[in-house]
Every structure is written in C-alpha cells, then in structure tokens.
C-alpha cells in the first residue's frame, strides 16, 4: 500500500503550481517561447472512409471536414497495429509491439498492461513541465501501477478498456444490458437468464471508480465537458498541456440517444459518426477558445472498421482488400490489409500547419511520439530504438517525405501476434501471411503463408486485388528490397531493449467498485479535477 500512497501523493504534488515544474517553468519558462500544447484524439474502429473529407459518400463529419479544410489531411496514414491495445501502446511509446511488448489486447481480468519500463509520451512531457491529461478509453492495463495516473497522466477520466467489455444499464446497440442478478444467482449472461453477474463497465476519475456501470448515453457529453475543463484549467495554470483523448466512438455498442437526437432518423452508425464529430468539434472549440495558435490538435484512428459488426461497422472507403474477400473473412480491423490499418488523420494548428492541404506522405501513428517530443523541446528516452519519425518537416515544411518503409504487425487474423508479416515499401506492399478477420457473414479467412510474398502495387491497385506477377521485372526488382528491409528491422529489434507484457489473468484484477454488489455496481461523487490543487 505504501507505494500506492506515494504515487498518489506524487500525482497530487505535480499540480501544486510551481513546485514540481519549478526548475523548468518558474525560472526558465518566461524567457523562452511558450511550449505548444498538444491534443491527440484517437477514434476507435473508425474507417478511412468514415471521414467525409476522404470519402464523398460520407456526409456525417462536418466538424472534421472543417478541421481538414483548416489544417492538413493525411491520406496515407497508418495505425501501428490493427487492434486496440497494440495500436495505443505504439502511439504512447513510438515503438512497435515487438519492442514495447504489447501485441494483443488486454482483458478485464488482466494483471499487467503496457510494460512499466516502457516510457510513455505522457511521462516524457510531464518531465518537460507539461500538465498531462487522458480522457476516454485506455486499454493498456488498469490494475495497480498500469493505471493511466501511473503512466504519466496527471488527470484521467474514462473507461479502462472497450465499452463492450462489461455490461451497462443503457447499452445501446450490440451489448447485453445488465440488470444485476440477485446475489448468489448465476450463471452470468446465460441465454435463459436476463441478468448479469460479471463486472459491469466502470468509469474512472483518476484512481477512483465514479460510476459502475457507466451510463453510456451521457458519456460523449461528459468527455466533452471534462476535456474543455482540462484545457481551461491547464491553461490557467500557466503550463503547457498534453491531452490525449481515446474516444469510445466508433466502437460498438453505439448508444441509442444518438438515434433519437438525429433529426433525419439516420441509421445508428451514421448517427454515431455525427455524435463523434460533434464531440471532436467541441474539443477543438475548447482549444480554440483557450489557446488558439499555440495548440496542435492531431486526430486519427486506432485501426479500421470492425466488419463483423455488419451495419454497425464503418467504411474502408476504397481499401476493399479484394484479394482476400473471395477467400473468406473481412480485410479490415485485425488484418494487415489496408482496411485494417489505414486510418483518417488530420493535423490542425492555425498559423503553423498550413490549411486546406492534403498530404500523401507515408506516415504512422508511431510518428506522433517523436514529433510531439521534438516540438515540446524534450528528448527521446535513451537506451531503446524507435519506429516513428519526427514528421515536423511534413507538417510545417511542405515536405512529402515520410517513411520509405512501414511494418504492419499481425493483430489477430493470421498467425503469431505482433509478427511483422506485411511490409510496406514505398508504393509496394508485400504479404508473407494473409488472412481475413471474422466477417459480417461469420466467415473467417484462414492464415496462408506466402513465400515468396504476394506483392501489390498500391499506386495502381488500392484495392489490393491482383498481386504482381512473380516473374515480372517489377516483382524481381522489389523483392530483394523487401527482404532487405525486413531482415534489417528484425536484426535491429533483436539488438534492442525490448519489453514483455504480462498477459496473465486473475479475476481479482477486474475493476470493482463494490464487491458486495452483483456486477460491482456503485456510484460515488465526482472528484476535483486536479487532486491536491485545492479548488
Ligand atoms: C443516462 O444519461 C442520460 C443522458 O444524460 C440520461 O437521460 C439517463 O437518465 C441516464 N440513465 C441513467 C440510468 O442514469
Ligand atoms: C481548398 O483547396 C481546394 C483544392 O485545392 C480548393 O478548391 C478550395 O477552394 C480550397 N478551399 C479553401 C477554403 O481554401
Ligand atoms: C539497452 O539498455 C542498456 C542499459 O540501459 C544500454 O546500455 C544499451 O545501450 C541499450 N541498448 C540499446 C540498443 O539502446
Ligand atoms: C525492460 O525490462 C526488461 C527486463 O528487465 C529488459 O530486458 C528490457 O530491456 C527493458 N526494456 C527497456 C525498453 O528498457
């Protein structure tokens, strides 16, 4: 318990104005140009085609489209994995799962999380004098010191994992509701019973569960409110801030209030997209009102649409993974087809990032870490290698040079978790293993190995329909380059300091507000935003 107390104390102390940031801000801060603020918004399961600015069929993202018109839109931007936990771990560490240890999702009962000797973006910025906040879905471990408050975030408000990992009273589409079973009764979620004994979905504020189950209907509104408050209070403190928002949208379940709120009575997915877009607009307005010109807002997604959810899944746009489709399964979330990891991305920073620009530079969520660290004037953590690059020249300098090479790890659809089975090299993409995730029709596309690899030319074939003929000069020219970059990265990883995540499970690790209640049901008062800071 002593360590917990100490850490709580430290979390508190860092808010006592000029105590913790004394050296950096109070003495030096005034003589330097102010450090920029960062707002990073990560959508969940949003398809590339779900951004209207990307895909004309989508008409539900007016705020994001406006942000793209006022900023830079990236059309060849990739999540670092095709599923939730690895994608988020890569964002916060700038490293692929083979290095940071997070190769698949954590569970409600997971004991571990993002390995503690990985350094998060928030930890680096905290050290550089930033106030740091996280709002929304974490999914990098919630038990003991894996909680966001111990991973560099001064403030946390949100849910510890996906909102289909536990019941709620207002579940919306595609989630069982959770009227609690009378005590001692079970089994949980059995089809002939209409009650639920598992742990309900909790809502945290800092270390405390403030509501269990969380009321999903009001969640978007509360996120907007907390984000705006955080921005205001952090600005008022005189220190720069980092706010990382992990949206619940567009992951199922989609809440039912979205529908009633939609005047045109649109389908649930489109209504959800509008709700998400409204939330992003509110956060952007909050940042503009408080700190316009000094706040860099970066919006992107964690992976492609969850096709298995049928009409409750988003759009891959043109990235249809056509080679895979007749072989079964979906070529979206959990796969290394473009639909799995090519995500919407918009950078907005009035006065710094030019407006109304579309960039075709090959970039990745992995780049957020080194870019933000550089802009904050901080240094990368030592003793490890990074997969991302500092994208400042693309953002500010009009450069189109992003990565020459990206690696897309397996995220569940084919073979070993985290393995680098797919290589992007300039306009080419090579698959050593293919596979399809569970599709709407229930089919899966079994893993298939390819040696030599299938190679697609994405410039001519965005749908990944027809691989290059292995006898062609083009294939013969590209193949040795693919082999070389893959061998290089594997060699580099073998010589790097890599971490290993603890994926063991223990029912006692499930977050539970009140163990005496079935489903751990409880409700407690909200906490002050910055504990220890007084009002
Ligand atoms: C959930 O929140 C919505 C919207 O804020 C509200 O109308 C509803 O009464 C709440 N439900 C519960 C069970 O508290
Ligand atoms: C944005 O750019 C497009 C094409 O480059 C142009 O047609 C449009 O007028 C521009 N919009 C604004 C608001 O500048
Ligand atoms: C790994 O960590 C050790 C000890 O901190 C350090 O000396 C070494 O340089 C690191 N290796 C790499 C590849 O950074
Ligand atoms: C994390 O700790 C393990 C075990 O001590 C070590 O092997 C590894 O190199 C560390 N990772 C980093 C990034 O330092």
UniProtKB/TrEMBL annotation:
One of the record's GO cellular component terms: endoplasmic reticulum
PROSITE patterns given in the database record: PROKAR_LIPOPROTEIN, SULFATASE_1, SULFATASE_2
Enzyme class: hydrolase
Residues annotated as domain Sulfatase N-terminal: 36-378
Superkingdom field: Eukaryota
Gene3D superfamilies: 3.30.1120.10, Alkaline Phosphatase, subunit A
One GO term of the biological process aspect: glial cell differentiation
The enzyme's E.C. designation: 3.1.6.1, 3.1.6.15
Subcellular location: Lysosome
Family matches, as Pfam families: Sulfatase, Sulfatase_C
Reactions this protein catalyses: Hydrolysis of the 3-sulfate groups of the N-sulfo-D-glucosamine 3-O-sulfate units of heparin; an aryl sulfate + H2O = a phenol + sulfate + H(+)
Molecular function GO terms recorded: arylsulfatase activity; metal ion binding; N-sulfoglucosamine-3-sulfatase activity
Keyword Kinase in annotation: no
Predominant subcellular localization, coarse grouping: other
Keywords recorded for this protein, A-Z: Calcium, Disulfide bond, Glycoprotein, Hydrolase, Lysosome, Metal-binding, Signal
SUPFAM superfamilies, per database record: Alkaline phosphatase-like
Cofactor(s) required, per the database record: Ca(2+)
PANTHER family to which the protein is assigned, alphabetical: ARYLSULFATASE FAMILY MEMBER, ARYLSULFATASE G
Family, similarity comment: Belongs to the sulfatase family.
Full protein name: Arylsulfatase G
Lineage: Eukaryota, Metazoa, Chordata, Craniata, Vertebrata
Gene: ARSG
